[in-house]
Design a protein that fits this description.
Length: 231
């Protein structure tokens, strides 16, 4: 972690697309951007880690004229091909159990994988939840990582052979990945379209949030929105 100032944080009211709850009022959310960070350096206010083997990953801020908001984005730039390597970039200043996460992501390259993931209830590099979109596989899958082992969690109403849900995830295009977390229920959307729900009780306590990739995935992220649900 660096000693520089925390990333630009804005507060606004929003309801994640696909997650609206009738007439309930929107809860203020934190928006974490990278527009105040220096290009070519790690983002301030984040800690990097890795699950599995291989190197730590290279999380750097880059200028990107195509960014949905502002001109700077966060990129996991390491293309190390270790298949069981899962780089993490965790936001230090927040811990919560129930929340909604929304992020813009863009898979850029990768031959082993082209993955973009969101992490929540993060305890340490061996214990957390994540949902990831994969441009090579064309699907979105929700996992738990428990004691360092990653296991996919089946969508409600699906069979045991189901692996997440097929979806259009495109390399080189910005898309929106969202997850709404309430108790043991996790609700996933891609580009505002609800994909599936999952239920799991492995991690009940608050934890941190952040980003995740796999193997040689070079992936960009922009504007992480975190809407914490009051207890």
């Amino acid at each position: 972690m660096t000693g520089r100032a925390l990333p630009i944080i804005g507060v606004l009211a929003f309801v994640a697309v696909g997650f609206a709850h009738g007439a309930e009022p929107a809860v203020p959310s934190t928006v974490i951007t990278f527009d105040g960070d220096e290009p070519g350096r790690p983002p301030s206010g984040f800690t990097t880690a890795v699950t599995g083997g291989g190197g730590l990953g290279s999380w750097i801020v880059r200028e990107d004229p195509s960014a949905p908001s502002g001109k700077k984005v966060l990129v996991q730039a390491s293309a190390e091909k270790t298949s069981g390597r899962f780089p993490l970039c965790i936001y230090d200043a927040m811990s919560a159990a129930d929340l909604t996460l929304v992020v813009e992501f863009k898979p850029m390259s990768g031959t082993i994988d082209q993955a973009a993931g969101l992490v929540w209830r993060y305890q340490n590099p061996a214990n957390y939840y994540l949902v990831r979109a994969n441009a090579l596989e064309g699907n979105v899958v929700l996992y738990k990582v428990e004691n360092g082992k990653r296991s996919d969690l089946k969508p409600l109403g699906s069979g045991w052979l189901t692996y997440g849900k097929k979806a259009t995830v495109e390399r080189g295009r910005w898309q929106t990945l969202s997850v709404q977390v309430h108790g043991s229920r996790f609700r996933v959307a891609l580009d505002g379209e609800h994909l599936f729900d999952v239920e799991d009780t492995t991690f009940r306590v608050p934890g941190k949030v952040g980003f995740w990739t796999k193997a040689d995935s070079v992936t960009a992220f922009d504007d992480l929105k975190v809407q914490v649900t009051p207890p």
